[in-house]
Amino acid sequence: MRARSSPVTLLDSGPLREYGVLQKPLSFGLVRRLQAYLNAAINETPLQRFLEKNPLVLGQHLAGGHGGWVIPGSRLGSQLVPDFVIGEHHGGRCRWTIVELESPSVRLFTRDGDATRPLQHGIGRIRGWRAWLHDHGSYARAQLSLADISGNAHALILIGRRARLRPEDARRRRQLEAEEKVAIHTYDWLLDGANETHTEPGGR
Q: Is residue 169 a part of any domain in this protein?
């Protein structure tokens, strides 16, 4: 049996090497710029551009500890294009997460507890991409170099800000996450990870 490459080798070589991200603490300056973008953005477009230029912000949430890939959706070339695909090498296999960005200025749920249109849109996009992978998984694995990806890929939706959440939204969000098998976070989740890992000027 041919031995699988190590995570570091996979990042340094292969067709996805330009999207490789090694996990490391975020700099103080990068955290400050992330905060500024989040506070100024009225839709997801500037945040998508910021994350494309600073893939480590998404890469900080990779679970393996060795780094992985943060691939802008435009690279995939399909009609159903997620905003990002994040990959990591874990347990001898590649594990992928589909990422959809929605506006940071919207609420997640109506007062009646229903998902708002932007959240419904994000869920619909995840469903569509997973359906495409069920039908075209072999193409994605061979032609897009997304080894081991399938229609059961993990999924993440970033939407809204924590300050606009109502207490009752937490229960409804957990319910929707279980129903759709998707993680739903506000953009403050990115700051949570950044504040845990960033380095102060002159610090370690």
A: yes
Q: 102 to each of 1, 9, 48, 69, 83, how far by Cα in Å?
A: 44, 34, 10, 21, 10
Domain-located, residue 202: no
Find the Cα–Cα–Cα–Cα dihedral 120, 178, 128, 160, rounded to 10°: 40
What CA–CA distance (Å, rounded) separates 148 from 45?
30
How many CB atoms are closer than 10 A to CB 65? 10
Q: Per-residue pLDDT tens for 104-138?
A: 999 999 999 999 999 999 999 999 999 999 999 99
Q: What are phi and psi of 134, to 5 degrees?
A: -60, -40
The dihedrals phi and psi of 157, each to the nearest 5 degrees, come to -115, 125
Number of C-alpha atoms within 13 angstroms, CB side, residue 119? 24
Q: What is the CATH number of the domain that holds 41?
A: 3.40.91
Domain extent, residue 34, equals: 7-196
| Two tokens, residue 34 | 């992330």
Residue environment code for 11-20, b if the CB has 16+ CB neighbours within 10 A, otherwise e = beeeebeebb
Question: What confidence tens digit (pLDDT) does each residue in 6-40 have?
Answer: 545 456 668 898 999 987 888 999 999 999 999 99
